[in-house]
Amino acid sequence: MSGQARKKRIRGRTGEQIKSWLIMLPGLILMTFFVWEPLIESVRMSLYKTRNVELVRFIGLDNFISVVGKDDFMQALMNTFSYTFWSLVLGFLLPMILALLIGETRRGKGFFRTAVYLPNMLPGLAVIILWSAFFSGEKSGVLNILLGRLGMPQQTYLTRTEWVIPIIILIATWKGAGATALIYMAGMAGVSPELYEAAAIDGATVWKRIIHILLPAIRKLAGTLLILQIISVFQIMYEPMVLTKGGPDNASLSLMQLMWQYAFGGSMNYGKASAVAVIVTLILLVMTAIYSYFNRRESDWD
Amino acid sequence: MKSVQRTGVIREYDMHSASVKAGYGFILLCCALMVVLAVFPLIWVVLAGFKDLKEFMSSTSLLPESFSAEPFITTWNQLGISQNYLNSLIFVVGSVICALIFNGLLGYGIGILKPKGHLAVKRLVMISLLMPTTISIVPLFMNIQNLHLGNSFLPLWLSYGANAMYVILFVQFFESLPGSIIEASRIDGCSQLQIFFRIVLPLSKPICAVIAIFAVNAAWSDFLLPYLVLRGGQLQTVMVRLFVFSTEQTVNADTMMRSVVFSMIPPIVLFFIFQKQLTENAVSVGIKG
User: Do A274 and B10 lie within an 8 Å CB cutoff?
Assistant: First the structure.
């Protein structure tokens, strides 16, 4: 190949490369503006004293010290872990059970799948407001009406410190469990029916088949979904914001809600809000590292 | 012809056992209960919408006294929901267009063009999948203000052009396309953009449809960033309006329930039209998001 031709080919290739990057550029700019830069910026802002949208001066870790030193931070941190705990108790096994039940039905499977997925399509905000009427402590609250029918006394719900977090998780589970169940169903459908047939011929009962064939088949999937669930519950924010405003007495205040309050709750303290965001990000990063560890072992993507 | 073997742990042969039969009955009962639990709140909120404030606050009956549509019409007109619906529509349409074009082009670069360094971009996108936007909503809002883009749909539309999940769905789909078609059109002298619009996009209708459906629903339900950008202005969407009602408690409980009904109608319609695509693709979308 002559030098001229090779040069031309290389130049051609470089041209292609540049054009390829130009095609990706709009997307990259948007990702930078909406995702990457704000992440970095929140770290920078957390180290500055801010006034409105201005960075006034560098103050090191003062924002962090001041934020962490307040009682509401410790309360919010504890609450956020409490949300995570309750979401594991109420929301982790349920989708798996739903998937197992629907997977066993011989008729109407499509109908059941559709029905459990429906709540997931509804706007989260509307769902929260809708359920607030169910958990109203008035006599017109839907649960109180139902309790009354059963001859039981009325209750209060969201004003009880020990009930408020489980109730919020219950609502979130109502919305999300069906969608997660569909993921489990896909995982369960991957098990070859011949395995069950063979086990049945060998005399394994239905329970034994579930424990020895089905559960091992979805173990890895469950691990991944567990981490994803923890990551997403850890950022719970608008649910308590709308339902209880963090009350009663900060009993349902979450970390992200605290961040929102610092930024948009009147004081416009973006520096302190960013400090809270950075703390949450750090905790999430640890969880993400765990997730990608699982994910790398599991998927051949990338 | 061989019939497709039925999936599931319980086999045909088990159904002869009385205990398994009873267990199967129990499973059906649970599934029926599940359907009731999923649907009852929706039916209730519509029923509650028929009640006026006095009835809503004092009645201990689940059924309304009358089924007149008047309360819904009054609330709709009083709150001027038509305008909010129109705003939501504009917001949703722009968001879907941005979601398809910008994420599609980025996915095309990563999945098909693969220039030097595309792997780094792919990794960055993968990582951002797990870093949600709410974390950085404060600096993002400051950036938008600094560019004087407040009270405008533009930043909201564009925010849908920066969705890591959509990019990855595109990449996965593009990588499954036969390379020979793209190679052939390249030899025919098509430019990269021509290949994208004439070859790749027409082949990608299924994934575009899925992303469009999910983007419609996401944009319709979105309210945090839209609230910050649009608050106080004329462009408020239905969800922004609902969020304002809920935080400022400016409307009565019965009006609130009717607003909830209004906000749920489009997603439910969307759901019934596209339930097949939605339930089939919930897996890929759910596990990545």
Answer: no
Same domain assignment for residues B105 and B139: yes
B159 touches chain A (CB under 8 A): yes
Give the tens place of pLDDT for each residue, B153-189: 999 999 999 999 999 999 999 988 888 888 888 888 8
Residue B5 lies in a domain: no
| Chain B residue with minimum CA distance to A46 | B139
Cα A238 from Cα A256, distance rounded (Å) = 9
Same domain, B67 and B209: no
Please give the pLDDT value at position B258. 92
Segment B193-245, tens digit of pLDDT: 888 988 898 889 989 998 999 899 999 999 999 999 998 889 999 999 999 99
pLDDT along chain A (302 residues), means of 10: 49 78 94 92 90 84 90 93 93 92 86 91 94 85 85 85 92 92 88 85 85 87 85 90 88 94 87 92 82 64 41
A contact residues 170-199, partner B, Cβ 8 Å cutoff? 174, 178-180, 182-183, 186, 188-189, 191, 193-194, 196-197
Q: Where are the alpha helices (DSSP H) in chain A?
A: 3-31, 37-45, 62-69, 71-91, 93-104, 109-121, 124-134, 142-149, 161-189, 193-201, 206-209, 215-234, 238-243, 255-264, 270-298
What confidence tens digit (pLDDT) does each residue in B97-149 have?
999 999 999 999 999 988 888 999 999 998 888 776 678 888 999 889 889 99
Q: Is A133 on the interface with B (CB under 8 A)?
A: yes
Number of domains in chain B: 2
Q: Is residue B196 included in any domain, yes or no? A: yes
Asked if residue B21 is part of any domain, the answer here is: yes
Task: Residue A225: list chain B partners with CB under 8 A.
Answer: 287
Of A208, A236, A210, A254, nearest to A72 (Cα)? Answer: A254
CA distance to partner chain A, nearest, from residue B120 (Å): 11
**Residue B281: per-residue pLDDT:** 78
Q: Are residues B112 and B236 in the same domain?
A: yes
Residue that terminates a domain, selected from B71, B89, B106: B71
Same domain, B197 and B276: yes
Q: What is the topology classification, in CATH, of domain A62-298?
A: MetI-like fold (1.10.3720)
Quick check: B252 contacting A, CB < 8 Å?
no
The tally of CA atoms less than 13 A away on the side-chain side of residue A68 is 11
Residue B267's domain spans which residues?
A: 73-288
What residues in A contact B270, CB-CB < 8 Å?
A: 121
Q: Is there a contact between A284 and B121 if contact means CB atoms under 8 Å apart?
A: no
* In a shared domain, residues B24 and B108: no
Q: What predicted TM-score, i.e. pTM, was given to this entire model?
A: 0.88
B271-286 pLDDT, tens digit per residue, is 999 888 888 777 766 5
Instruction: Give the largest CA-CA distance in chain B.
Output: 75
Q: Please, are residues B212 and B228 in contact by the beta-carbon 8 Å criterion?
A: no
Q: Are residues B96 and B193 in the same domain?
A: yes
* Domain end residue (candidates: B71, B87, B102): B71
Q: Which of B15, B40, B135 to mutate to test the interface with A (most CBs of A within 10 A)?
A: B135
Interface predicted TM-score (ipTM): 0.89
Interface of A with B in 66-95 (CB under 8 A): none
Residues B54 and B82 occupy one common structural domain: no
B169 & B253 share domain: yes
